[in-house]
């Protein structure tokens, strides 16, 4: 599934292309799971979205949302369009047909209908938002684990910005359990250290726990552990505070590098908003390379399963202590 570098790449794409635009219309969903959390389904979504402006593109961990701008600066209780990409979700942007709004006497609703008729259909397209800036925002999802809904915004518990992309201390309702991520300047590393050192579970499992540190999935957990020279099965309680801080720094450095390459793509399940794959796969040190030689020491990379998740590591560089 898309992890922090992939979701952040998409957030930056959307910040450049759709923020500030008003939503003219929302298409009928092509799969019922897309709006499974939305009250009143497509009618409820349209009621809150049509005519609203996308105030910002914000991310915490793997969650994306757009606060809906009103005449008042974003405040607690206002709505946000929340999107979770799940295993295979994509947010694509395209120019919406050939209609010139300034030269047309059609109403916004009529213009949106015309543009939807002219637009090409994307593979696994689930929902389309027609915008007043001449672009369409399209949610695609092959495996249908992703979801879209409106949620009210709530004040953050620590008073810091809710996520990357907006300064307001607001977070969509239901996202409060998602911890800050390794690239969030407001992250409190002390909480991660405390909860990890109190646990006998493998450090790989703790890195995947979105309630203590978010945005990390299988790819960047394996890569970060290799960079920090930590065996993935090492119990959290056996690692010192210094080593855990080093680990988070290593994961953050790997993610910054992945962002430079636009994320990691192995197939067409992850592409950016213009359909381009991420190119970080060629830089991976261990993930997906089980049985190959370590690029650091030449030892054959090993593979194991930890709490149901596959892990690749170097038995020499990441000795279990």
Account of the 3D structure:
The chain is α+β, with helices and mostly antiparallel strands and 321 residues long. It has two domains: 169 residues, MutM-like, N-terminal (N-terminal domain of MutM-like DNA repair proteins, Alpha-Beta Barrel); 125 residues, Helicase, Ruva Protein, domain 3 (Orthogonal Bundle). It is 24% helix and 20% strand. The chain contains seven helices and twelve strands. Helix 1 crosses helix 7, helix 4 packs across helix 7 and helix 6 crosses helix 7.
State mean pLDDT (0 to 100 scale): 91
Low-confidence spans? 98-106
N to C succession of SSEs: HEHEEEEEHEEEEHHHHEE
Could you describe the largest sheet, including whether it forms a barrel?
A: 6 strands, antiparallel
**Shape type:** globular
Q: Report the CATH superfamily of the largest domain.
A: MutM-like, N-terminal
So how many helices?
Answer: 7
Structural class, by secondary structure, is: alpha+beta
Strand content: 15-25%
CATH topology of the largest domain: N-terminal domain of MutM-like DNA repair proteins
CATH-defined architecture of the largest domain? Alpha-Beta Barrel
Tally of structural domains: 2
Which features does this protein show?
321 residues, N-terminal domain of MutM-like DNA repair proteins, 20% strand, Helicase, Ruva Protein, domain 3
